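QA checklist item 7 of 12: single-chain prediction sanity check.
[x] sequence parsed
[x] length recorded as 361
[x] structure emitted
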Amino acid sequence: MESKRHVTVEPAAFQGEAYSAAPRDAVLNGHKPHVMDQEHFHDASERILDTISKVIDGKADAAKLALTVLLAQGHLLLEDVPGVGKTMLAKTLARTVDCTVSRIQFTPDLLPSDVTGVSIYNQSSRQFEFRPGAVFANIVIGDEINRASAKTQSALLECMEEHQVTVDGNSYQLSLPFMVVATQNPIEMEGTYPLPEAQRDRFMARISMGYPDRDAEIQMLETHQAVSPLDKVTPVVTANDVAAMIATVQQVYVSKAIKEYTVAIGRATRESAKLRLGASPRSLLQLLRAAKATSALDGRDFVLPDDVVDVAESVLAHRIILDRKAASAGDTAQTVLRGILSSLPVAQEPPGAWRGDKQSA
């Protein structure tokens, strides 16, 4: 009987070769990425977003958030009903970057070694050689991640958090940049293994695509009939460009007031009577990283409170758990977060303080 397991790697850079562990301080192509100036950063991000908009109609916000997660060195969970473009968005984002891409079709019989790799005995050299799995790529697309068993899902935990894989006692560093884009269908639950809280917490943001509006849907019917626009997508930035954009995001200034505001959001979720589980410390760190990427995409080198608010729902909603009474009363994680954000005061700063100007101190 033919196996249903499906793993593809584009291009297959590691197939047929032994793989050696990279040092933990490895950087892209042996060089530390440089910081882009604002003009080049804007041009690169616009090229990526324009390319995505030609394939995914009417989903500019989802495209921007996907790019935000990539530049913030996070991972993205696309969750919605079938046919709304989850996998299409993941593939398009991957193809805009000239780097290695792998796609894993998660099924119940998928093994952890299919994801991470396996050591094989080489009779000629009389040694075990490591054969990398599909996770050894810059962008890893995981289709229907909740169809795989919990054991296979857990194979992603280490690589998503530490950017490395440990097999047979040896650790192998993953290439930079590295991003996991996973999709799942929340409606059809038969034969699925829901992601545990520890797994969901590894994803920086969750996006629900939703249905396109009327005009976007008509445009899709006009342009997607004969050929998929995905076939025409070519890389518009290199892996070096993305690494430089990530380095630029890391240099975005965050004032003390922004850090205090971020912590206040997290503590408010833990103290809310409507929530059984609040935001973790990891989620607050990723919230701040996403806010820095948002500010950079908006052309600023400093974070404003609005940047934190803009990404708070996408970053935190899938990490918190409602109290049963709140759920029965019709509340959702999104509505609770909106209530918290609307009630929290934002510290008033003098002019220039958000930018870290010395004269404002």
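[x] summary fact logged: The two ends are 71 Å apart (CA to CA).
[ ] second reviewer sign-off
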